[in-house]
Fold this sequence. Notes:
- This protein has 704 residues and is an alpha/beta fold.
- It has four domains: 6-134, Rossmann fold, CATH 3.40.50.2300; 153-277, Beta-Lactamase; 282-441, Reverse transcriptase/Diguanylate cyclase domain (Alpha-Beta Plaits, 2-Layer Sandwich), CATH 3.30.70.270; 453-703, TIM Barrel, CATH 3.20.20.
- Helices cover 44% and strands 22% of the residues.
- The strands form five sheets. Strands 18-19-21-22-23-24-25-26 form an eight-stranded mixed barrel, surrounded by five helices. A five-stranded parallel beta sheet has the order 2-1-3-4-5, sandwiched between helices.
- Helix 18 (557-567) links the parallel strand 21 and strand 22 (575-580).
- It starts with 5 loop residues before the first strand and ends in a 20-residue tail after the last strand.
Amino acid sequence: MKQNNLIHLLLVNPSKNDAVELSNLLRNNNLTLDSKIVSNAALFDDAINKKTYDIILFKNDIANLDISSALKKLNSRQKNHTITILLGNKTAKETLKLFNQGINAVINEDSIELIVPTIKKEFAALKAFRSEDILKQKLNDSEHRCHQLIDSSHDAIAYIHEGMHIFSNEPYCKMFGYNSREDIEVMPIMDLVSSDDAAELKKSLRYYSESNKLSTDNTKKESSLNVKGIKEDSTEFQINMEFQFASMSGEDCIQIIIRNNEISLKAQKKLEKQLTLLNTHCQETGLYNRHYFLTLLDKAVEDAVDNNNNSYLLFISLNNFINIRESLGDIKSDKLIIDIANLIKNITNEGSSLARFESNQFSAIINTDDEKQILQIAKEILEAVNTHIIDISEGNILTSCNIGISKINSSSKNSQHILTEVRKACAAAITKSDQQIHLYTPDITELKDQELSNYWSGEIDNAINQKRMFLVFQPIVSLSGDVNENFELFIRLRDQQGNVIFPQEFLKPVEASGHSIHVDRWIIAEAMRILAERVKAGHKNRFFIKLSSPSLKDKKLVSWITHNLERYELNAESVIFQVVAHQAAENLYNIQLLDKQLHQLGCKLSFERFGKEENAFSLLKHINVEFLKIDFELVQNISINIEKLTKLIKVCDQANKLNIKTIVPFVEEAGSLSLAWKSGTHYIQGDFLQKAGDSLDFDFDSFT
């Protein structure tokens, strides 16, 4: 997996402008930053309490912030190492003192060009240091599991270094008649075989050890030797020793295995099952351990990306656990963890993957694509944990938790990215006063184009499923006696808090990804459903429905339109499909085919944003349209701009000669209305008549 090059940077600087300049300098030198700026001691304390930073860049002259005190705070609060750099003018003596206190680098303000190479060098060292820590932890975990595996084995196992026992398991001790490991681990291996075989064993061990040290490949040779063993009571017995080159506590040694051939196949399978549980589960809670859970998270991300099987990651963090452990002690606090684990297990569904992620943190992968369901599960977990009471002699202790949630879907990068998201959500949950649950939502201002498209595609899918996407309508009023009640349809979203999101914010990204095809299909189906209800109620409605550029290439679009016309038993002439003129010109072959198919159905076609270009009417030589909606730039300020009014009249006149009806939009005031009337247009539209809204009530007769 590619190492993460994102630098979490804290700029401690009294001048926000200086800090922004520094940040821009670093970004311009190809450094990827997640930066935060603080300007005083209080903000510094708050920042390091909430998040661990890779690099902290101090400015020399921060008021009320002593560098020495700041470094002490960092040592106590920032885990996983943090690089500290001071930008300021210091003497050699002052610099040496700062180095002794833990600062990593001091850069003179006159040598600002050193800041980029210094940060690159220190960040590279930081990543190497953290990687070494991870490898050390993995080695310790492996050795710990190895010891557990050896202890649980029915075979006799020992490790020999320079002829002496350095480790052995209980079956090995019992095989030779000793009660304690301590007794056997101070003995030479030669004391446990007969004198007749001692020379051969010594020769074999020396030869085996030297040949494996000289081996150039990664596969170490195995060998065995039949000898007579000697028990503590001097009884001799025949054994077969298998030798394997190994390492124990950093020392090269030889592993000796003496097989217990009496072990049954059933017992072997039971042992294998126990070892699997040992390697994948937390022994106290029975939930998965962190290491195995990360494997499951990798698979969940892969499944979402490859097969579109979405799920959610929950991160549950117990509050004040250090204080609770001090009050309860280790045994009772472990019992509390087991209680919480069982509470979570009882609430989540059977197919969920649960883990004890850290000492006071739990994680869960919930296989659902239903946001309401996941929020309900989180709420139930929160209530169960927050109402759990622990009895102690001094009184009762109440537990509480924070829950972060992140969705795993096709736009998820990797498991580490998902973990970062859910940790951010968990941190955000702490600040909520009503309930400590937060569903991660990315800051769309920081997203790149592809990420933005993926975000809005997912958000739109959620909005459709949760009925947060809806249509609004604006009347198109006839000035030439059309008895139909015409409306143009617009799309809106509501976010989780009920705020309305306008299409200017989300349509461009989803058009770029092609996901607007799904949006258009939803609009078509919903519009026809509403239109059918209006027709049954006796209204003579016609709906203008917009089509995005990707839908012009959608080979199944006409089938979808046909299906919904038949489903709702609608007259095709009551539906007019509207396409942006320049997008039609860019997709001439596709729009010609669509034009033909729509007219065969009986539907009509309209171009919008039409007439601004000098050669606009040349497009109509190839396409048969019934309506032209005039471009905003020809309509804006026509009451004070005679040139625009002249061009508007010219466009309307030319369209009339082609027997194409025109629509003048954006009629915002009385002056525009009167001029639009004089332009020769057939229809007008705008907020002066009625703003777009969810109501289809409008008095068309007043304009007849």
